[in-house]
C-alpha cells in the first residue's frame, strides 16, 4: 500500500502523474481530431474480410504468415527474457521506464500491417499518458532513493568498503 505524504515531492509527482495519465487516456478515448497519418484501406497486410469476420480463419493465417508468427513469438519471448534479466539486475522501476516504447511499436505495426490511421487525439493523448507515466516513475524513484538513504543512515555496521549485506553476513 502506498503511503501518502502530501508534503513530499515524490507523492506529489505520483499523484499529479496519475491524474495526467488519466486525462491522457480520456483524450485518446473521447477526442479523435484530424488524421495525422491517413492510411488507405488497400495498405493492409490482412484483408478486411479476414480481420473483422466472425469466421476468423486461423489456418489461413498460419499457412500464409507462418514466418511472421514465429518471429512474433520469438520477439515476445526475447522481450520477456530481457525484462526478467533487467529486473533481476536493476529492479522493476528500470524495466517500467521502457514500457512506453511498446506504444510506439504498436502504432507502427498497426499502420504497417492493419492499415490504421493515426489521429491527432491519439497522438496528444498518448504523449500526455507517457508524461504522466514518467512523472509517476520519477516519484517512485525518489521514494526508493530516500528509502535507500534511510537504510544506510540507520545501519550501525555500515562500512564504505564492504557492501551492507556482506556486513550482515560477517556478523552472523
**Radius of gyration over C-alpha positions, nearest whole angstrom:** 23 Å
Number of strands: 2
Shape: flat
The ordered H/E elements are HEHHHHHEHH
Give the N-to-C terminal Cα separation: 32 Å
Mean pLDDT: 77
Main sheet: which strands, in order across? 1-2
Give the amount of beta strand, in percent.
Answer: under 5%
Major sheet characteristics:
2 strands, antiparallel
Percent helix: over 70%
Low-pLDDT windows of residues? none
Q: Structural class from helices and strands?
A: mainly alpha
**Number of helices, where a helix is a run of at least 4 consecutive DSSP H or I residues:** 8
Topology:
Blueprint: H1 9-30, E1 35-37, H2 48-52, H3 58-64, H4 66-90, H5 92-96, H6 100-114, E2 118-119, H7 120-154, H8 164-171
Antiparallel strand pairs: 1-2
Helix pairs in contact: 1-7
Transmembrane segments: 12-31, 65-86, 93-112, 118-137
GO molecular function, one term: transmembrane transporter activity
Protein name: WAT1-related protein
What descriptors fit this protein?
transmembrane transporter activity, WAT1-related, 172 residues, transmembrane helix
Folded structure, characterized:
The chain is mostly helical. The protein has a domain at 57-90. The chain is built from eight helices and two strands, in the order H-E-H-H-H-H-H-E-H-H. It has a two-stranded antiparallel sheet. The longest helix has 35 residues, at 120-154. One of its GO terms (molecular function) is transmembrane transporter activity.
Amino acid at each position: 500500500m502506498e503511503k501518502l505524504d502530501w508534503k513530499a515531492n515524490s507523492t506529489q509527482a505520483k499523484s499529479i502523474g496519475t491524474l495526467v495519465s488519466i486525462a491522457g487516456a480520456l483524450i485518446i478515448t473521447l477526442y479523435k481530431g484530424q488524421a495525422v497519418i491517413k492510411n488507405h484501406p488497400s495498405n493492409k497486410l490482412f484483408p478486411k474480410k479476414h480481420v473483422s469476420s466472425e469466421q476468423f480463419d486461423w489456418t489461413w493465417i498460419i499457412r500464409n504468415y507462418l514466418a511472421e508468427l514465429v518471429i512474433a513469438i520469438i520477439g515476445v519471448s526475447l522481450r520477456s527474457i530481457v525484462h526478467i534479466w533487467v529486473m533481476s539486475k536493476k529492479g522493476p522501476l528500470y524495466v517500467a521506464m521502457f514500457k512506453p516504447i511498446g506504444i510506439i511499436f504498436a502504432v507502427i505495426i498497426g499502420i504497417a500491417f492493419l492499415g490504421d490511421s493515426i489521429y491527432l487525439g491519439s497522438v496528444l493523448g498518448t504523449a500526455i499518458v507517457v508524461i504522466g507515466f514518467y512523472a509517476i516513475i520519477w516519484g517512485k524513484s525518489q521514494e526508493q532513493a530516500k528509502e535507500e538513504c534511510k537504510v544506510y543512515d540507520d545501519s550501525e555496521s555500515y562500512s564504505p568498503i564492504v557492501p551492507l549485506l556482506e556486513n550482515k553476513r560477517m556478523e552472523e
